[in-house]
Amino acid sequence: QVQLVESGGGLVQAGGSLRLSCAASGIIGVINTMGWYRQAPGKQRELVAHITRGGSTNYVASVKGRFTISRDNAKNMVTLQMNSLKPEDTAVYYCNADSVAWSAAPLNIYWGQGTQVTVSS
């Protein structure tokens, strides 16, 4: 069965740091892009950062310079190092991955269950 298992969420004060990790298992085919989304109560889910298999990264403007995404292709893991956290970073963070079973197959999308990040002022 396919699983994306997240860890590392918690409660920190403003200016602190957290490291989120996500391990994928049971995915058939090559994992192309992995990333992190977040959703605050009453708000739309937004992309925080993603990274391709080749290591190209993108970040939402509000976290540039503070967050760093990385991955280990051999272990099918992605991490998000979050520094200088702000109260507005408070949200549920979701791990995301996509894959194809073979070259002409449709793209498959997978989601983790989410991990809570709370930043106090």
Fraction of residues in β-strands? over 45%
Categorize the overall geometry.
elongated
Instruction: Determine the mean pLDDT.
Output: 95
Outline the biggest β-sheet.
Answer: 7 strands, mixed
Instruction: Give me the secondary-structure category.
Output: mainly beta
N/C terminus separation: 40 Å
Give the SSE string. EEEEEEEEEEE
Helical proportion, percent range? under 10%
Sequence stretches where pLDDT stays below 50 over 5 or more residues: none
Q: How many individual β-strands? A: 11
Instruction: Count every helix, treating DSSP H or I runs of 4 or more residues as helices.
Output: 0
Radius of gyration: 14 Å
Description:
This protein has strands spanning 3-7, 10-13, 18-25, 30-39, 46-52, 57-59, 67-72, 77-82, 91-100, 108-111, 115-120. By secondary structure, the protein is mainly beta. The strands form 2 sheets. Strands 2, 4, 5, 6, 9, 10 and 11 form a 7-stranded mixed beta sheet that branches.
Secondary-structure map:
Elements: E1 3-7, E2 10-13, E3 18-25, E4 30-39, E5 46-52, E6 57-59, E7 67-72, E8 77-82, E9 91-100, E10 108-111, E11 115-120
Parallel strand pairs: 2-11
Antiparallel strand pairs: 1-3, 3-8, 4-5, 4-9, 5-6, 7-8, 9-10, 9-11
Task: Throw out a few tags for this protein.
single chain; mainly beta; 57% strand; 7-stranded mixed β-sheet; 4-stranded antiparallel β-sheet; 121 residues
Q: What's the short version?
A:
This protein is mainly β and 121 residues long. The chain has strands at residues 3-7, 10-13, 18-25, 30-39, 46-52, 57-59, 67-72, 77-82, 91-100, 108-111, 115-120.
